[in-house]
Amino acid sequence: GAAVIRVDGSRVYGMDAEIEKKMQSKLDLFFESSLLKWIEQVIVQTLAPPDDLPQSLRSGIALCTLINSIQPKTIKTINTRPIELMQVENIGLYLKACWKLGVPSADLFVSSDLFMRKNI
User: Fold this and answer.
1) pTM of the full predicted structure?
2) For labelling, which of 47, 52, 67, 97 has a CA lying 20 to 30 Å from the CA of 79?
3) Three-state secondary structure along the chain?
């Protein structure tokens, strides 16, 4: 069968291509755009790139800022250096804060999924 190109630029074939096509068909770009605008309004910051929600949230900084906007001082330290390990840690801090604020575990994702753009 024909190759399918993932968001990260890699090509997949066969069963992986079928799964990727199914995941891509579930993308709701209007919802993603609306969510990005809402986050920007809450945190009073413009996120980049404006047309790629996962990339905009990948460092975890906006997510941690969002939590602190909703519940001040929930996340004490947000890592701002562009180091992958610190970015993944930010995402983890966000997820832990969501859980503490009452978001069910089943509604959360895994840090690496956002960071690596998998299962999103």
Assistant:
1) 0.80
2) 52
3) CCCEECCCCCEECHHHHHHHHHHHHCCCHHHHHHHHHHHHHHHCCCCCCCCCHHHHHCCCHHHHHHHHHHCCCCCCCCCCCCCHHHHHHHHHHHHHHHHHCCCCHHHCCCHHHHHHCCCC
